[in-house]
Each structure stands twice: as C-alpha cells, then as structure tokens.
Amino acid sequence: MSSLKSRSERRTRRKRGIRKRILGVPSKPRLSVFRSSKHIYAQVIDDLSGRTLVSASSNEKEGGSTPGGNIQGATDVGKRLAERAVGAGVSKVVFDRSGYQYHGRVRALADAAREGGLKF
Q1: Nearest CA among 120, 103, 116, 119 for reference residue 56
Q2: pTM of the full predicted structure?
Q3: DSSP 94
Q4: Are 40 and 33 in contact, with CB atoms under 8 Å apart?
Q5: Nearest Cα to 109, choosing from 45, 59, 42?
Q6: Are 20 and 30 in contact (CB under 8 A)?
Q7: Maximum C-alpha span of the chain
C-alpha cells in the first residue's frame, strides 16, 4: 500500500486540523468556503447552534451570468455574502478556508467579503 494520498484526502486532513482550532460562536460565526471546479460556495455558520445564518454561491439565479470557476465569480459571491451577513447583523467572522490554499478564488472571496463590511 502506498503512502501517497489523493488530493481530496490531503485536503480533508488539512480541513480537520483547521476545524480543531476554529469555532463559530454567535458573536463571531465561521465563514466557510467550498470550492468546486465550476462553482464556489460560502456560508456563515454558528457552530454552537448548528445553524447556517447566511449563504451565497455562484450558481444562484440572482447571481447573474458570472461563472464561479474564476476570480470574478468568487468576488461576486464574497460581495453578496457580506451584504447578506451585514443585513443579518453579523459584522465579525472567523474565516475557514476548508483546507484550500489562501490563493486565487478563495482569496478573492475573502477580500470581497472584507470590502463588503465583514471583519476577520
């Protein structure tokens, strides 16, 4: 048996390590990101109650025609998520990159969320 792991297994291992250290509480919920090849999804989660407070993704109907597989799509999702979170009374969050490298689409989403009014 080889010690080499698949890409998804390595990401899952990193994700578990990150989730040990961060926790979304009502005063500072967790902003979680999921990235697929065609879309990007983000949600603000209160881990203590197990509730998703707000979410946004690139495959929503009101999202426009911008695809989510690029940086522009991730920026749009970040702006939409920040707008909804501020509307729901959330201003501070903990960023959970879910084992992805803080680069490209993940970074674009985070920067757009910061510009939209979220602090992390």
Answers
A1: 116
A2: 0.90
A3: E
A4: yes
A5: 42
A6: no
A7: 52
Q: What angle do CA 24, 70, 99 make, to 5 degrees?
A: 35
> Residue 96: helix, strand or coil by DSSP?
strand
| 3-state class (DSSP) for residue 92 | strand
Residue 68 is predicted with a pLDDT of 79
User: Closest by alpha carbon to 114, among 86, 73, 72?
Assistant: 86
pLDDT tens sequence for the chain (120 residues): 457 789 999 999 999 999 999 989 999 999 999 999 999 999 999 999 999 999 999 998 876 667 878 999 999 999 999 999 999 999 999 999 999 999 999 999 999 999 999 999
State the fold for domain 7-115: Nucleotidyltransferase; domain 5 (3.30.420)
Domain residue limits, the chain: 7-115
At 18, list the tokens: 């990150």
